[in-house]
Amino acid sequence: MKKLLATVLALALCLSLPAGCSQPAQQTSQPSQSPRTSQAAAEEPYYVAIVAPFTGDNAMYGEFIYHGVMTKVNQVNEAGGINGRKIVVDQYDDKGDSTESATIAQKICDENKYLFVFSSFASGASISSGEVYRKNNMLHFVPTASHANCSVAGGTSWAMSLQADIEYYLLGKALVEDLSGKKIALIHLNADNGFIIRDAVVKGVEEAGGEVVISESYINGQVRDFTSILTKVKAADPDVVCMCVQYADTSAMLIQRAQIGFDDSVIWCVNNDNFVDTFLTSAGEAAEGVYCESIWSCFSSDEDIVKFRARYNDMWDGEEPSPYSVQPYEAMCMMVDALEQGIDTTQGLQDYMTDLGYWDGETMAGEFGENQRLVRDRVYMHIVKDGVFEAVE
Hints:
Number of strands: 15
Shape: globular
Order of helices and strands: HEHEHEHEEHEHEHEHEHEHHHEEEEE
Helix content: 25-40%
Oligomer: single chain
Strand order of the largest sheet: 7-6-8-9-10-14-15
Radius of gyration: 21 Å
Distance between the termini: 18 Å
């Protein structure tokens, strides 16, 4: 994709001031000549590690990350590799657990064969493992997590997702400007990231001329019956209800709202975490007409994205690419670009990232800000029609 507004960085700096194809088993690889410190033998492959939840509740997201990386890796290897050297990807399952992710991170660093690593899906695991990678000077991509502490200036971690306060500020504006909302109800988790989301949405809504009339939160995993929350939401008389939680809970709320008797004019919107086919399956008919925000859209008419989408669909049995797969894909593209230039040590790749600045990629473009996070300028709206997502122009 070849487009990005120049105002992105200014927005990012302003907002940051206050604030199933894969297998979980690790591949077996032969030891190499310490590519982190010296150029490996010419016949050795390039070794890359992916740490993500390949089992447990978030295994779906681990697969997305794996699919994104492997879409580029397979393309390179099928073309003969880079100067005759293939790329070998080893998988590690952290189950989404922060302690497990940090333990795996130390093991990866001790292996002394990996050029760089992707870790992990959620912010907690990405932060805990990132501290280990920083201490060991290991280049670390945060493919999906949005917490501000996942990457810091001068560190070894580079984050590909929009920072939470930026994404949800943009979502707040979209609720008013794109969905014509004036009175917004917000449902989020009772957790640090949930309150970051709340504050950012409120800021965006208010700047766009709307009002958050109610904000309800709950502890993740402790609520299955959402009727009491939904009853409070109805009493606030919103014209838009925005649910910033994962698909299992949004699906339950959408199904349970029928018991409360919301007016048909109320617009329902879910966040980027729900922009997956699993949400459509889980919510079923209750998802019909629901809007979904995303930080990237596979429905773009951009020629490069159209080609990428077709290649991804073909490689992964019709699965649609999501932000969870595209962001690691673009990170892998950056590394392929560096390797093709002969940069094949961890320190060299870290220097490459430091000097990169603006990235004009195949599926997304952006500039790395001061906190080493790829910044973009917008979110995308979709609507569920006949059981599938459609772009809202």
